[in-house]
Amino acid sequence: GAVASFRVEADGSLRELSRQPSHGDHPCFVAVDSTGRWLLSVNYSSGNVLVYPVDEDGRIGPLSDQVRHVGRSVNEDRQQASHPHSIYPVPGTDLWLAADLGTDTIYAYRLDTNQGALMSAGQTQVTPGAGPRHLAVHPREPFVYAADEMSSTVSAYALNRTDGTLTHLQTVSALPQDFAGNNTCAEIALSPDGTRLYVSNRGHDSIAAFRIDNDGRLELIRHTPSGG
Predict the structure, then answer these.
(1) What is the pLDDT, as a whole number, of residue 228?
(2) pLDDT tens digits, residue range 42-67?
(3) Model confidence over 33-43: pLDDT tens digits?
(4) CA distances (Å), origin 186, targets 12, 86, 117, 121, 135
(5) Which of 11, 20, 57, 159 has the greatest count of CB atoms below 10 A from its CB?
(6) Which of 90, 105, 101, 108 is CA-nearest to residue 34?
(7) Residue 108 · residue 97 · CB < 8 Å
(8) 42 - beta bridge partners?
(9) CA angle in degrees (0–180, nearest 5) for 70-51-186
(10) Rounded to an integer, what distance in angstroms lies between the CA atom of residue 93 and that of residue 208?
C-alpha cells in the first residue's frame, strides 16, 4: 500500500511527484486539510489513520503521525476488527471525523497543523451492524450524514463542534420499500447549497436523493437508476 501525489500537466495528463508507504494494508481514502500542508489517509484492513506532510510543490513527506483503532462489532464476517473507511474535515474547525465500518464507530480527532499530529476528541457508537462507510459534513449547519454500507441506510446526526461527538437524529433506508435483493451503500454527497443529499446503492444500482429539512432530518425524493 502507498499514498501518492501527482501534478496535472497542461494537456490533462498526470505526472507522479511522490510516493510514501501506507504503513498498513488496503489504503482506501485520502483527504487534504484546508492549509494544503497535511494529507490524511486510512488503511481499511490495518485499522490505522495516518497523517503526512505535503510541501509547497505537492510532494508527500514521510509519515508524521498515526492512530490505530482497536475493536469489533456484531457481524462476524465483516466486523471482526477495525476497518476505518474514510476521514473528513469539519469546515471551520480543526476537527476530523473517521468512519470505521468494523467497529461501528465514528471517531473524532483534532489535527495539530503545526506538528501534523492527531489528538482524540471523542467518538460515537452507531447502530450495531450498520457499518458506517462514508460521511457527508454539512457546509454550514451542525449536521453529519453517514452512508451505512452494511444496513443500506442513511443516518443523520447533530454535530457537537466542540468535541466532534454526534447525536443521532434519524436513520432511513436508502432503498425502495419493495426491493428485496442484496445491496450495500457506498458514496454519500451533499449538494453545494446543503439542501439535498445523495447516496449510492450497489445492488439496487441507484442513487437515492433526499431533501434536508431545517432540523437536519431527511425526506426521500426519488431513486434514479445509476446505469451500472
Answers:
(1) 82
(2) 999 999 999 999 999 999 999 999 99
(3) 999 999 999 99
(4) 28, 11, 29, 26, 10
(5) 159
(6) 90
(7) yes
(8) 29, 49
(9) 65
(10) 29
